[in-house]
TrEMBL record:
Composition bias type Basic residues, residue spans: 39-48
Organism: Hyalella azteca (Amphipod)
Protein name as it appears in the record: Uncharacterized protein LOC108680177
Entries under Gene3D superfamilies matching the protein: Ribonuclease H-like superfamily/Ribonuclease H (3.30.420.10)
Domain of life: Eukaryota
A molecular-function term among this protein's GO annotations: nucleic acid binding
RNase H type-1 domain ranges (all copies): 52-169
CDD domains (alphabetical): Rnase_HI_RT_non_LTR
Gene assigned in the entry: LOC108680177
Sequence ranges of Low complexity compositional bias: 56-69
Record region (Disordered): 26-73
SUPFAM superfamilies noted in UniProt: Ribonuclease H-like (SSF53098)
Length: 331
């Protein structure tokens, strides 16, 4: 497989040179393809320039012989490769029905052609097997599979892209294309996350953690200075830190109230409100303000959904310094 990089003009020149001597081949782009007549060959081959694969949810063959296009709307859960393979399959069906042979099917999906070259493909086995079966029914060498770069200024490619976009947004009936195992796995995984998120959203107000973390996505890992701080952060998030409210619930404190403020001593009270630690909190505020965090809240101090922020390690250090300076959790 030859690879290089080039501008649209060079791409057109090289493609024209490749098709010059094969006027008896009919060009047939398939899903973001381009019209062309490369040299005859009995074995499908790949050559051209590297190009990212686009992301349509539909596929369509375009015939250069009659300038016709046709699109099919696929389920949005299908991948790009599935759409590309389906376009190749429909192109083969078109060729078999109209007997416009010999012909070349051009596609910008390198992955699709690599799968078709494999005797035992690792994915999309049903689609690949169906395409290979259609190829075996046609005369040897009658169909050539050609890789071409997309968005290189080639007319057939642009026409197919437009047809794909139209099919993806149309109200046409969705084509019945078999799902690959990897696609089904992705669908199941995505819907489990949605179900879990919906369930958490409906009940999170009942839990201390729910007031800090609105999403079910995992915390970004960041190692704190000591195991002691790891434990304290977790317990502050869960509302089980050794503060008077939680200690009173397990009969380890005579009162749930803060000795200084005479209100329930919770994680929010300790970190955000308590006047006993006003000086330490001023230092905490200066440190996190320097990181662009302007609001003191449990979500900003204990993580919430911001643990992937580049400033989160500095925020952790500031909270650790606050905890150390208050001596509230000293043995």
């Amino acid at each position: 497989m030859a690879e290089s990089s080039s501008g649209p003009g060079l791409t057109e020149d090289l493609f024209a040179e490749a098709v010059m001597d094969t006027s008896d081949f009919a060009g047939f782009p398939s899903d973001s393809p381009v019209i062309g007549r490369p040299a005859k060959t009995k074995k499908p081959r790949l050559h051209g320039y590297t190009k990212p694969v686009p992301s349509p949810t539909s596929s369509e063959p375009t015939s250069s012989s009659n300038n016709s296009t046709q699109g099919w709307r696929l389920d949005p859960s299908h991948t790009i490769v599935a759409a590309e393979l389906y376009g190749i399959l429909q192109a083969l069906k078109y060729l078999a029905a109209n007997r416009t042979l010999p012909a070349v099917i051009c596609t910008d999906s390198r992955s699709s052609l690599q799968l078709l070259q494999q005797a035992f493909p690792s994915s999309y086995t049903q689609l690949v097997a169906t395409i290979q079966a259609h190829l075996h029914l046609l005369p040897t060498g009658a169909v050539h599979l050609q890789w071409v770069p997309s968005h290189a200024g080639l007319h057939g490619n642009e026409a197919a892209d437009k047809a794909a976009k139209h099919a993806a947004t149309s109200a046409d009936q969705t084509a019945q294309v078999p799902f690959d195992f990897s696609e089904l796995k992705s669908v199941v995984h995505r819907n489990i996350w949605k179900f879990w998120q919906a369930k958490w959203t409906s009940i999170r107000g009942q839990f201390a953690l729910g007031m800090i973390k609105p999403s079910v996505h995992p915390w970004a890992h960041h190692m704190l200075q000591t195991r002691r701080f790891e434990t304290l952060f977790a317990r502050l998030r869960l509302g089980t830190a050794p503060l008077n409210k939680s200690l009173f619930q397990i009969r380890q404190a005579p009162s749930p109230l803060c000795p200084s403020c005479q209100v329930p001593e919770t994680a929010h009270h300790y970190l955000i409100v308590c006047t006993e630690y006003a000086e330490a909190r001023s230092q905490l505020r200066r440190q996190i303000n320097s990181q662009g965090i302007l609001v003191l809240s449990l979500e900003t101090l204990l993580g919430g959904d911001i643990t992937s922020s580049p400033t989160w390690p500095q925020t952790c250090r500031a909270v650790e310094n606050f905890i150390s300076s208050t001596h509230r959790f000293d043995p």
